[in-house]
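Morning run. Coffee first, then this:
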Amino acid sequence: MSNLTSTSKIATRNHVMLTHMSNRPTGVNQDRIVMIPSFAADNSKIDDSNNFFIGLFDGHDDRGHEIASYAAKEIPFQIASTLNHLDKPPSPNEMTQIFTDIFRNVDKNAPSIGGGCTAMAVIRIGTTLYLANTGDSTQFIAIYHPPSKLVEEKSNHNKRYIQNMTRPSSEQLNLQGRISIHHQNKLHKANFPDEKSRIENLGGRIHIPPKHPMGSRVIVRSTTHHEDVGLAMSRSIGDAEWTEVGVIADPDVQIVNLEEFWNANNISTKDSKMFVVLGSDGLFDARRVEFVAKHLAYGFFESDGDIAEQMLTVGKKLVNMASPIKVKFYRDDISFVAKVVEL
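And here it is:
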């Protein structure tokens, strides 16, 4: 198991994990990333060498990193424990309920210490991929469609661009293949009607900036902080003071049959590649999904030399491009994980 908790990075030829601490004076990285290959390997009826668990947990408030650490340990542990007691692989409906029950249980038993976190988990079981999300982090599937051939001049330009960390710069990545985005999650924000209705029906207060509705906040008079505090998401793990006003832990769960997805997108016939991405808002508040996916696709599929080293450089480039040019401006923790998925 790989568990990133500070400013660190790991890469192989088919996955990259990177987390970079914010410039907050506390000096604590509140994001957590977990990757577990051969997930649920103790159950021979479910075990598959292609199975995996990926999780990303973005903490907030003073002790959010502690809640993120708690969730990063408990969610995969409880899911694996549940799967290991089954005598056959779960159906999609059963797996959705497993996610919901465990997210709720982890939320219920999270330490009430003044903090919370988002929770995202992507699990492969056989030929089914499950994408679960609670909060305002981002996950999606990307397909890379290769060109008929790589043009050396463009490849040289892209190599220079990726290695150049100087900003500002007019250079851009010129990916030679094409990217398509699939199964991007919905962010849990209090301005969306269903979320807003649930919270207001329980007496919750919501502030929605007219010009920036995605900056909505669920307002609670905090006994921890002794003042009104706004939570930037409508679902989370922890955040006990917000639970009473309708901030819940229930995840949205997307189910992807990989064989059907492969065929529908002609992945094999067109020699395309598929990868899954999870990232914190420190990355995706600053850069669009397509921007991130193109950079990752370049590292995985168009760069030359050692792919693991190239992916580390691409990761550094993404952090660089998601950070303010002036170091005096606030930079959030920036974390992401990407994994190539084979059928």
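Residues 161 and 169 are 9 Å apart (CA to CA). Good start to the day.
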